[in-house]
């Protein structure tokens, strides 16, 4: 599968009050995808994730949709 210059959508059912390893892993994966394939990432989180402290900084650095 060719993912060069593609946009990858991560649909995440995650709204924990802490960033945890899940978000750290997503950040690392996005970094590798950008570095190796020039791929972009978009994240979809549940609406209740918007009140989490980590989401504020995550939204500033990443493309995020809340549903």
Strand order of the biggest β-sheet: 1-2-3
Radius of gyration: 12 Å
Number of helices: 2
Number of domains: 1
Number of strands: 3
Query: Strand content of the residues, in percent?
Result: 15-25%
- Major pleated sheet: 3 strands, parallel
Structure notes:
- The chain has helices at residues 20-37, 53-61, and strands spanning 7-11, 40-45, 63-66.
- By secondary structure, the chain is of the alpha/beta class.
- The protein has one domain (7-66).
- Strands 1-2-3 form a 3-stranded parallel β-sheet, with helices on one face.
- The longest helix has 18 residues, at 20-37.
- The protein starts with 6 loop residues before the first strand and ends with a strand.
- The model has no long low-confidence stretch (mean pLDDT 97).
Question: What is the gist of this entry?
Answer:
The chain has 67 residues and is α/β, with parallel strands linked by helices. The chain is built from two helices and three strands. The longest helix has 18 residues, at 20-37.
SSE layout:
Layout: E1 7-11, H1 20-37, E2 40-45, H2 53-61, E3 63-66
Task: Describe the structure using short key phrases.
67 residues; alpha/beta; 3-stranded parallel beta sheet; 22% strand
